Amino acid sequence: MAEIKKLWSVQFNERAFPHVQQAFVLNPDMMHEMDPFILLAEDWFKRGTFSDHPHKGFQTITYVIDGRLEHIDNKGGRGILGAGDVQYMNAGSGARHAEEPVGDDIVHSLQLWLNLPASKKNTDPFYQDLYAEDIPVKNMGPVSVRVFAGEEGPMKPLVPFEMAEISISAGAQYDHKLNPNHTVFLYMLAGNCAFGESGAVLEKGQAAVLTKGQTIQMKSEHRSKILIYSGEPHGDPIVAHGPFVMNTQEEIREALIDYQRGNFGPEAK
């Protein structure tokens, strides 16, 4: 049985227009202990916040909580995500895109940065949009589990990764299966829930890292919604600078030069 290893309350920061509010659910300062996870950012933003920008060396998983998010890349890709939709992106050898709200919408989103091992840093970039109506749902009475990635999920990441959203009615109990070899953390989207045999309680706006185990026990004190992320660590060196995540400082320098020389392609617009 897994237990809560470390928990914290997320600190939200008011920002200047058009980036309304921002928080690091998983702070990038933790990336060395959270392999393969780099960060999890929560944002509320209007159009003009995340216009054309590059990425290299990692993957993003963007979960839209509210609003309409338009994605544009410089390879001709374009799509709109709504509440409950998720996008997987492999930046790999270099991607350039924009993520903007539609019209006057304020988008509320969570974006996870998932590191690539050194052997996959130069893979071709690609995107996969996952729409809410296509996500498999396991209904177990007072508990429902939306499976985005894992054995039954439609996401096709390049590395072993699992992601699920768990909704639990007040007073209900549920044991969620885990991969004991993965790094696992969770984030409370709503409610108040006790975890593990210790009964450590988390409420909305709190996050936690789990110990290794095959299951995590959950008992909801109020109607709760939980996002749980699980990834296989690979142990490679990591150096992050802005939108680039590589293995050495020299590779960061090379990525910056490649971008400045236009090797990531034209502007996304």
Q: What does the secondary structure layout of this molecule look like, with pairings?
A:
Blueprint (H helix, E strand, L loop, with lengths): L3 E6 L3 E2 L4 E8 L10 E9 L7 E3 L2 E9 L2 E5 L4 E4 L4 E5 L4 E7 L5 E9 L10 E5 L6 E4 L2 E7 L11 E8 L4 E5 L5 E13 L4 E4 L2 E5 L4 E17 L7 E3 L2 E3 L2 H12 L9
Would you write up a description of this structure?
The chain is mainly β. It has one domain: Sandwich (Jelly Rolls), CATH 2.60.120.10. Helices cover 4% and strands 52% of the residues. It is built from one helix and 22 strands. Strands 1, 13, 14, 15, 16, 17, 18, 19 and 20 form a nine-stranded antiparallel sheet that branches. A seven-stranded antiparallel sheet has the order 2-3-4-11-6-9-12, with no helix packed on it. Strands 5-10-7-8 form a four-stranded antiparallel sheet, with no helix packed on it. Strand 2 and strand 3 (19-26) form a beta hairpin. The N and C termini lie far apart (48 Å).
Name its key features.
52% strand; 269 residues; Jelly Rolls; mainly beta; globular; nine-stranded antiparallel beta sheet
Summed up:
Helix content is 4%, strand content 52%.
How large a portion of the residues is in β-strands, by DSSP E?
over 45%
Counting copies of identical and different chains, the oligomeric state is: single chain
Order of helices and strands: EEEEEEEEEEEEEEEEEEEEEEH
- What is the share of helical residues? under 10%
Q: Which architecture per CATH?
A: Sandwich
Spans of at least 5 consecutive residues with low confidence: none
SS content category:
mainly beta
- Mean of residue pLDDT values: 96
Say which CATH homologous superfamily is assigned.
Jelly Rolls
Please tell me the total number of domains: 1
For the sheet with most strands, the description reads: 9 strands, antiparallel
> At the first level of CATH, what is the class?
Mainly Beta
Q: Could you say which overall geometry the principal axes of the C-alpha atoms support? A: globular
Report the end-to-end length measured between terminal Cα atoms: 48 Å
